[in-house]
Design goal:
By secondary structure, the protein is an alpha/beta fold. It is 24% helix and 20% strand.
Length: 455
C-alpha cells in the first residue's frame, strides 16, 4: 500500500491560503481551505478587474493556478463553466483550524456532501460572519470538534488542540497515520492571553514524536516589528488615553476579541465609555455565552459600552436590535472626552461627520502583514493628515516571533519540518531542524524517520 503522504496545495512561500491534503491509503482529508494573500493574485486581478464569480466561482481562479485543481472536492455549482468536471466527492473530510478568511474562505466551493469539522467556537464565529457580512460558507454536514478528543476518518486519527491566535478558538492538530504522526500548528502565537494553550499543544506534539511538523512561519525572516504582548498594548493605550483631552479613536481587527477586551478595559480604567461598531456589537452578542467565564462585554447589559450608528438608508436585520440605544456622530462630538470610539478603517468617511479636534489620538492596532480589512497605508495616512490626527501604533501580533518559532521547532523535535504560511521558509534552516520548504502540489511521504538526536 502507498505510504501516507501530505501534499501542500496552498500556503507555499506565501502568507495565508494553507491547504494541506493528507492521504493514508484510500482516506483523504483536507486541512484548511481559503485564499492566500499572495502577490500572485494581484498580478491578474485588482479593484475593478476581479474573478467572474457570478459566472463561475472557480473558473478564473483555476486559469491562473489561484485555487488547486482537485478532482472530487468542488461542488457541481462551483465548477459551472470550468474545465474541471464534477465528480463524486473524493475528499472525505475538511478540518478548519480557525475562522480567518485565508483558512475558511473557500468553504462554499466544496461539495456539500463533504463534512466540515470545526470546534463550537469557530462554528459560532463563522455564523456571526455570515450574519453580518453576507459571507456564506456553504451547506455542509458540520461536525463539531471537542478539544483533544480524537476523530477517526478511515485510517487517520485527528486530534484537535486549542492554541492561541488573534481570533479565538483556533486549533492545531495532531494527525496520526499508519506510518507516523503529523503535527500541524495552524496559525498560532506564544505571547497572547492564552499562551498556555499553545505551550500545551507544543508539549503534546513533542510527546507524539511526530515524523513531520507543519508549522506556520508568518514572521520568519525579516520582521522589524516589536513583539508586543497584549499587556504591552494595554500599557500603551493607557498612556494615550491619559494624555487625551477629547475623544480617542481606535482601529483593530474586527474579530480580535482579545483586542476588544483590551480596549474596553482600558477605556473603563480611564473613566471612558467604549463605543463599538454595529458589527462588533453583533459579534459580542453571538459569542458571549461561549466565552470562558462569561467575562465578555455585551451591548445592552454591560456598563460603559455603547454602539455607534453610522448613517445608512437601510439597516440589515442583524443591525436592528442595537439601533434604539445606539449613538451617532452628534453624540460623539458632544461627549468626546468621555469616549474611546472604535472606527473601522473601511468607515473612515465618518471622520467627515465626527470632525475630531486637531491632535486627536488615533490608535492603529491591526498591523498584521496581511489582513482582508486593511486599507492601503498611504490612503490611511492621507485621512489622518487631513484631519490632523495623531497616529499611535500599538499591536500584538497573532503570529509567533522568530524566537517563538525556533522554540517550537526545538521542543517538538520532529524529523522533518515543513514551513508554510511564510514568504521565508529558508529561515527555518538555521533552527537546527531538517527543514524542507515544500513545493506546491508535490506529495511527501510520511515514514518513520527518527526524531532529531536519536540514533
Amino acid at each position: 500500500m502507498t505510504p501516507p503522504r501530505i501534499t501542500f496545495l496552498g500556503g507555499v512561500r506565501e502568507i495565508g491560503g494553507n491547504k494541506l491534503l493528507i492521504e493514508d491509503g484510500p482516506d483523504r482529508v483536507l486541512f484548511d481551505f481559503g485564499p492566500s494573500f499572495s502577490p500572485r493574485y494581484d498580478e491578474f486581478f485588482v479593484n475593478y478587474l476581479a474573478p467572474r464569480m457570478s459566472v463561475s466561482p472557480v473558473k478564473d481562479l483555476l486559469e491562473f493556478g489561484l485555487i488547486p485543481r482537485v478532482p472530487g472536492l468542488f461542488s457541481r455549482e462551483a465548477l459551472t463553466h470550468s474545465d474541471l468536471p464534477h465528480q463524486a466527492p473524493d475528499v472525505h473530510a475538511v478540518f478548519v483550524s480557525h475562522a480567518h478568511i485565508d483558512h475558511a474562505g473557500y468553504l462554499p466551493l466544496i461539495d456539500p456532501e463533504i463534512p466540515v469539522h470545526v470546534n463550537e467556537g469557530t462554528r459560532t464565529l463563522l455564523q456571526a460572519i455570515e450574519g453580518s457580512r453576507g459571507t456564506k460558507y456553504g451547506e455542509h454536514p458540520w461536525k463539531i470538534l471537542a478539544d483533544r478528543k480524537p476523530v477517526k476518518v478511515g485510517n487517520l486519527e485527528i486530534v484537535p488542540h486549542p492554541v492561541d491566535h488573534s481570533v479565538p478558538w483556533a486549533s492545531g492538530f495532531l494527525i496520526h497515520t499508519r506510518e507516523g504522526t503529523i503535527a500541524y500548528t495552524g496559525d498560532y502565537r506564544a505571547h497572547g492571553p492564552r499562551q498556555k494553550l499553545t505551550r500545551d499543544f507544543v508539549a503534546a506534539s513533542g510527546e507524539a514524536e511526530p515524523a513531520a511538523l507543519v508549522i506556520e512561519g508568518t514572521r520568519a525572516g525579516p520582521d522589524p516589528r516589536k513583539n508586543f504582548d497584549e499587556a504591552g498594548v494595554r500599557a500603551g493605550v493607557d498612556e494615550v488615553l491619559a494624555a487625551a483631552d477629547g475623544v480617542a479613536l481606535v482601529s483593530y481587527y474586527p474579530r480580535d476579541v482579545d483586542r476588544i477586551l483590551t480596549m474596553y478595559e482600558a477605556a473603563r480604567a480611564a473613566g471612558r465609555t467604549f463605543v463599538v461598531s454595529l458589527k462588533t456589537a453583533h459579534l459580542l452578542t453571538r459569542i458571549h455565552d461561549l466565552w470562558p467565564g462569561g467575562h465578555l462585554p455585551r451591548p445592552g447589559t454591560t456598563p460603559d459600552l455603547l454602539v455607534y450608528r453610522r448613517p445608512k438608508l437601510r439597516f440589515d436585520n442583524w443591525e436592528k436590535p442595537f439601533l434604539d440605544a445606539a449613538v451617532d456622530s452628534e453624540y460623539v462630538r458632544a461627549h468626546g472626552r468621555e469616549l474611546l470610539l472604535s472606527l473601522d478603517l473601511v468607515h473612515f468617511a465618518e471622520l467627515i461627520d465626527l470632525r475630531p479636534p486637531a491632535g486627536t489620538p488615533f490608535i492603529h492596532s491591526m498591523s498584521e502583514p496581511f489582513s482582508e480589512d486593511d486599507l492601503d497605508d498611504r490612503v490611511l495616512h492621507n485621512w489622518l493628515d487631513h484631519f490632523d490626527l495623531r497616529f499611535h501604533q500599538l499591536h500584538a501580533s497573532g503570529h509567533c516571533s522568530e524566537a517563538e518559532l525556533r522554540s517550537t521547532v526545538e521542543a517538538v523535535g520532529s524529523a522533518t519540518v515543513f514551513p508554510v504560511h511564510t514568504e521565508h521558509p529558508e529561515a527555518f534552516a538555521k533552527f537546527g531542524a531538517t527543514s524542507r520548504p515544500p513545493e506546491l502540489g508535490e506529495p511527501y511521504a510520511i515514514g518513520t524517520e527518527r526524531r532529531r538526536g536519536e540514533r
